[in-house]
Amino acid sequence: MPETIATTVRTDRLDLVPLAVAHAEEMAEVLADPALHAFIGGAPLTPPELRARYERLTAGSPDPAVEWANWVVRLRAEDRLAGTVQATVTEGGSVAEVAWVTGTAWQGRGVAREAAKALVDLLTARGVRTVLAHVHPDHTASAAVARAAGLAPTDLVEDGEVRWELRVRG
Fold first, then answer.
1. Host domain of residue 135
2. Three-state DSSP class for 81?
3. What is the dihedral of CA 132, 137, 139, 140, to 10 degrees?
4. pTM of the model
5. Residues near 50 by Cβ (< 8 Å), separated by ≥ 6?
6. Cα separation of 31 and 104, whole Å?
7. 84 — phi, psi (to 5°)?
8. Tell me: the pLDDT tens digits for 110-132?
9. Fewer CB atoms near the end CB (10 Å): N or C, the chain?
10. Helix axis angle, 140-148 relative to 111-125, nearest 10°?
């Protein structure tokens, strides 16, 4: 699935652009609100910390059986980054665990919903048959994003988060 990582995905309002280390400065601003960490823990990273993280992510997984695919989300009308989407692809490209984050300033505008749907569509078009996400049970906005992307909650709870799943037949 290496071609997937290098693919820019265009939706009605967004460009999902493959992650680059050069995005760290602007993304540090997008992700600076401590409220973004209410459900996932941690704290906002400084630009140098985020740059180091992006260096690790763009280098790829050290496990050859695992592929990391990461995009920044650019809102075209504002020519501004607004968040990220990511997928960890395993099992020979048939399973992907996805995640998303939208900066506080862009929340409530359907950015995460549109980006996550585009990501899931790209992955399933490229052969992924099971898409997973983990959502904190109190994070109703993220649950709405998962649902809009075609995932459904399961009864499984892992590390305090509900496992959401989409299984593609065929």
1. 2-167
2. strand
3. 90
4. 0.94
5. 24, 27, 28, 31
6. 8
7. -140, 160
8. 999 999 999 999 999 999 999 99
9. C
10. 40
